[in-house]
Amino acid sequence: MVGYRRNKWTAEEEGALLAGICKHGAGKWLNILEDPEFRPQLLYRSNIDLKDKWRNMKIKEKSMTQTLDSASISISPCKDFAFSK
């Protein structure tokens, strides 16, 4: 896209993405963007931005757990968020 400038993700945006995934599920990027709870933090992000960021966060998590000796650690994006549906 011409004139599009990539901006680094803020901690607030990452938190909104994780909370949105916990509430709506991974792959429901438009639902997350349209949710009034997350819209203000993700105002300048597209559904593709969310998908790509989630993919990169999962890759980073995987590489972090592989560097640990033989510990089996599973990090859930929803462990710190409690939502009632």
Automatic annotation (TrEMBL):
Alphabetically sorted, this entry's keywords are: Chromosome, Coiled coil, DNA-binding, Nucleus, Transcription, Transcription regulation
Primary location class? nucleus
Output the InterPro entries linked to this UniProt entry.
Answer: CHD1-2/Hrp3_HTH, Homeodomain-like_sf, Myb_dom, SANT/Myb, SMH1-6
Show where the HTH myb-type domain sits.
Answer: 1-62
Which residues does the UniProt record annotate as the domain Myb-like? 1-58
GO CC, alphabetical:
chromosome; nucleolus
Looking at the Swiss-Prot or TrEMBL record, what is one Pfam family this protein matches? HTH_CHD1_Hrp3
Q: What is this protein called?
A: MYB transcription factor
Species whose genome carries this gene: Eutrema salsugineum (Saltwater cress)
Taxonomic lineage is:
Eukaryota, Viridiplantae, Streptophyta, Embryophyta, Tracheophyta
